[in-house]
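Reviewers asked in the last cycle whether our approach scales beyond single polypeptides. To address this, we selected a multi-component target totalling 986 residues and predicted its structure end to end. The input consisted of the following lines:
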Amino acid sequence: MQFELDRGSREPLYRQLAGSLQQRIRSGALPARTRLPTVRQLAQQLGVTRLTVHSAYAELQSVGWVEATVGRGTFVAERIEQLIAPPEAEFGREVTPGGMLSDILRMTQLPGLAALARADPAPEHYPLRNWQRACELALASGGPGLMNYTTAQGDLTLRSTLAEVVRERGVTAGPDELLVTAGVTNGLSLLTALLAPPGSTVLVEQPTYLGMLNILAARGVRAVGVPIDDDGLIIEALEDLLRVERPAFLYCMPTFQNPSGVCLTPARRASLLELATRRALTIVEDDIYGRLAYEGAPPHALKADDHSGQVIYLSSFSKSLMPGLRMGYVVAAPSMIKQLTLLRQAQDVCSPLLIQRALSVFIEQGWWHTHLRRMLPRYRERRDALLRAMERQFPMGVTWSRPRGGFSSWVSLPPGVPVTELYVSAIGRGVAFTPGQVFCAGAEDVPHMRLCFSVEPPERLADATVTLGALLRERGGSRSLPTPAIGEYVPVV
Amino acid sequence: MQFELDRGSREPLYRQLAGSLQQRIRSGALPARTRLPTVRQLAQQLGVTRLTVHSAYAELQSVGWVEATVGRGTFVAERIEQLIAPPEAEFGREVTPGGMLSDILRMTQLPGLAALARADPAPEHYPLRNWQRACELALASGGPGLMNYTTAQGDLTLRSTLAEVVRERGVTAGPDELLVTAGVTNGLSLLTALLAPPGSTVLVEQPTYLGMLNILAARGVRAVGVPIDDDGLIIEALEDLLRVERPAFLYCMPTFQNPSGVCLTPARRASLLELATRRALTIVEDDIYGRLAYEGAPPHALKADDHSGQVIYLSSFSKSLMPGLRMGYVVAAPSMIKQLTLLRQAQDVCSPLLIQRALSVFIEQGWWHTHLRRMLPRYRERRDALLRAMERQFPMGVTWSRPRGGFSSWVSLPPGVPVTELYVSAIGRGVAFTPGQVFCAGAEDVPHMRLCFSVEPPERLADATVTLGALLRERGGSRSLPTPAIGEYVPVV
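The resulting structure, written as structure tokens, was:
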């Protein structure tokens, strides 16, 4: 088996090797059930360390492309045909929030693709060893009962720990004001079921989290966008809208908004709370990125200053720890928590108790805070790498947000750039981004894209930006186009 | 600290000790943050082994009543007040499927209570060591990617394994016909959302799984009961109902039905499939107890003989392995799986990938089959102990089903027995059962109760039955009441 590895490349050798192997599997050169060389053989043949080969195999295993059996070796997966459907044909079929979410989730199976579409944490830094220790500690103390059902509201031990966690965001809540959810999406889904009947209206930032638009669409709820700018949600625009709309609630991310990364200013936070109290507007605050601040401490949550009880607060550990835990939470009044608990009970009974108790241990041991401290400089470095690369590689006429936190930048393209075509072409060249349209309520042909800088290391971000820059120049963008004004990344007013 | 332990009792010493400790904590004699004696001290003082004390402490820890800190000792939980609300006051407030489900889930926090209310597997036999090995093997092969999001449909590796699992129930399905769910409840919730709009009708066996009645109530769907007898669902009654009702689907458990434990006969299975085909009736088959057969091999699933595609099949590992995994699955046509996948995506994105992959490893290693083989004789023994004890302890006029599989017996009481009062009194005396009403669509004052024999060892089942027998004699039952006819445990026709 021959591979060409480029020792001068910024791409680590194991990734080059994983990519080459993937290419050969995709081409059919290595069909299902083919036995791969042993780690030792291939390392020797290529003149690389065994760790390099082992890491490449592990990357392919993690997505199910190869399977290892102790004592027998590593084989191309039996069901490989189902995994290697050509991505150009498989992706971009439906540029809706739901269709795009499916695309993004399927991309987790494609290790070769530069993952600028996924607002996920960096998997190579997952604190797996401490997580395993937390599970062991939880089991040693809790025993087999941790594999039982538990209450739908969630484990009291975890809720007590979460009460301490939200206190660090300025939010005071007792365990009876907390509901454990399977991520923020689950909390949003339950809240929508409780508060927004089919046919009702929910206000969202424009652009907003595509998962929320997907939930609203699935439940037959109308989403109306409120524009944002560099300072976050535009309060005057919200006030205007409230004169004509009677929304079930406003969904917003005041701190490091997805997809734009912008942060609501203190003055606007005060205005928003005042307006909400005056108009009896329920605010659903999604604080999932609240801890991921790269320039000093983040502002407190909006909920911290909510003296009239207008704000329902949600967050999770999907960005600040690991999404696979499926662990999030809602803070609301005890009466609302009770209603949400009954809905959760009728949805899937409860979240796994072992994960709940292990998460509590993980936090109480200080491992979550350690992990955050370790990750913030890394994400800052990645953000800087992406911003620098866009500066160098993107044609004139393209602008972008410069987030001080979160996982993504919102890129504004010259009008007329065929974003969906660009999306499919980029995947064909090994780079995934997210078309802007899926973040926008009721909008089509949105000349924007979201680029996430959290998953890939700086060198891969730079390479991906070269590819995207080339595509942009081919596909409509040109250095001679006029530069849009500041705030241009607001797509719809 | 003084404890009276009865060495002649059938109750293990550690359970007696845990019970005594619990009593003292409940009484306030051991308030929050009290340091308990060390294991060594207490073992010496009581003249028992350290394992006994350790097991008692572990049982209290598992439900959060005490907390252990390495090097500091074991303490009564800081938030103990929230856990020890007197159960007589806390339970039985709302005798509805939802209220009872909350009661049952909260009972998992009360180790002293004889758990005849919970249709759970026996926690002391959970295969924790093999489960941990499965997690380690999965992580060793899959790496950090297993803590990422995955597709809402579920991991392909697990779905391929599940395809083999359902084959053993006679069901042929490819991975594209499978959806991974967070337990059967989750599958039922998604199917109801897809197939039964608010205001529509769903047929259920009478009595049926209370979780399904809870889902239907939560979604505003009307449940109509079809009577059952010792041979399962009465087909003629279903046929009669279909003349007046146009149900979205029929929900049933043909194999070891919950709560009755009855099993649909081969002849009725054939009639049911014929009727479903003729009337274009969709059948939702819940096979959660299908593997838990105590007298020879269980019949194949109904889905096995479904040649016209009328049957949607669900099962899970909550009874046959551990409910805390929150792992179940749906088998349906690929087009329906796609729709359910989109709903799941808008509900909570996906199930934890690590648990999915570890479950696949667990099954592929043969550990699930080993566990089942080990558990079947134990459950058979428990069933026999309960049936024997009822024979001895229950007054005349009380009858019960004699299940050949599953986890529960359906007990018919003389009319007029105040079941809800009985329920609350029994909890006061340390025994929990489930009032029959919550298993019955549109019925009140149902003179039945469900007794589960799966959680408690034979001696605890016997003791609990003594308590229940005494209560039945006090509260309206008497040996002089007429014996109901066979099939009397059908509450509503």
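Chain A touches chain B through 80 residues (CB under 8 Å). We regard this as preliminary and will revisit it once experimental data from Aim 1 are available.
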